[in-house]
Amino acid sequence: MTDTEKNFEIIEETPIYRGFFNLSRLKVRHALFRGGWTETLERELFHRGRCVAVIPYDPATDQVVLIEQFRIGALQVKDDPWLLEIVAGAVEAGESPEEVARRESLEEAGCEIRELIRIGEFFLSPGGCSERITLFCGLIDSAGVGGVHGLAEEHEDIRASVVDFEAAMAWVNEGLIDSATPIIGLQWLALNRDRLRSLPP
Q1: Which domains does the chain have, with CATH numbers?
Q2: Total-model pTM
């Protein structure tokens, strides 16, 4: 829809569950491209909010930092629900996306970001989830990076590894990396790494 007039209406929102994540049932209606309006639609909405992801990249060595952790969403889909991903975390009240990117890089991978490059923002699954990701590339010095990280109070058990860019792209092509955000980050890096490698240190 391109019309600036309001083209949807939230008739009712009912909380279904409030916990680690929140789930609501909404009654909505919206304008139709052919004119008129839909009947009242009932939909569930998974509230995830604003999140940030970072692909740490060392242009001097042409290496990225990938993390591996247990993911509940893959539990009944894969025999091995430990996914290869990139650093990510939720935006807390009062935080900027840049602050989250730097905080999560330290917490999850032991990486100190020397420069952040904003890649963009996108929804992950807008058919039923409100989550919107701000994605960054974080330029780093990968020397000494690796090991197990994460916050004990959040029950995080995260293994960080420094991986050659070409190997990471091969894992994408082989389906070993099968989470959307790292795939998007690596594909952006494939288009921009020559430029990043030519920057002064």
Answers
A1: 8-47 (no CATH), 50-197 (3.90.79.10)
A2: 0.89
